[in-house]
Amino acid sequence: QVQLVESGGGLVQPGGSLRLSCAASGSIFSIYAMGWYRQAPGKQRELVAAITSDGSTNYADSVKGRFTISRDNAKNTVYLQMSSLKPEDTAVYYCNADVRNNDGDFNSYWGQGTQVTVSS
């Protein structure tokens, strides 16, 4: 089994910054793409940013230039540095990872979510 544990959410004022972390653990042979998604009340879950194992990144247009995704392959951890936060960034943020486990099975895993609230 593979677990993803997120941390770093919280309340921040508009224009502020937060850094989210997501650590994967368990029966991991290899991690391919990792990403961050978010879901605001009454809205569908949407991709925020993703990063491949070789460091290629992809961002939603709404966060380009403000958010930066990175990963530490040695620690099986992905980060999301969020700057110039806006009230519309308020959502539950979920970590996702595509993992091949030690049995050779390939699955996509989700974290439990962390709340980010941008408000004055």
The class by helix and strand makeup works out as mainly beta
The share of residues in extended strands comes to: over 45%
> Mean pLDDT across all residues, rounded?
97
Shape, per Cα inertia axes? elongated
Helical content stands at: under 10%
Could you write a compact summary of the structure shown?
The protein is an all-beta fold and 120 residues long. It has strands at residues 2-7, 10-12, 18-26, 28-39, 46-51, 57-59, 67-72, 77-82, 91-101, 106-110, 114-118. The strands form two sheets. Strands 2, 4, 5, 6, 9, 10 and 11 form a seven-stranded mixed sheet that branches.
What can you tell me about this protein's structure?
The model has no long low-confidence stretch (mean pLDDT 97). Helices cover 0% and strands 60% of the residues. β4 (28-39) and β5 form a beta hairpin. Strands 2, 4, 5, 6, 9, 10 and 11 form a seven-stranded mixed beta sheet that branches. It has strands at 2-7, 10-12, 18-26, 28-39, 46-51, 57-59, 67-72, 77-82, 91-101, 106-110, 114-118. By secondary structure, the protein is an all-beta fold. The chain contains no helices and eleven strands.
Write the layout of secondary structure elements.
Blueprint: E1 2-7, E2 10-12, E3 18-26, E4 28-39, E5 46-51, E6 57-59, E7 67-72, E8 77-82, E9 91-101, E10 106-110, E11 114-118
Parallel strand pairs: 2-11
Antiparallel strand pairs: 1-3, 3-8, 4-5, 4-9, 5-6, 7-8, 9-10, 9-11
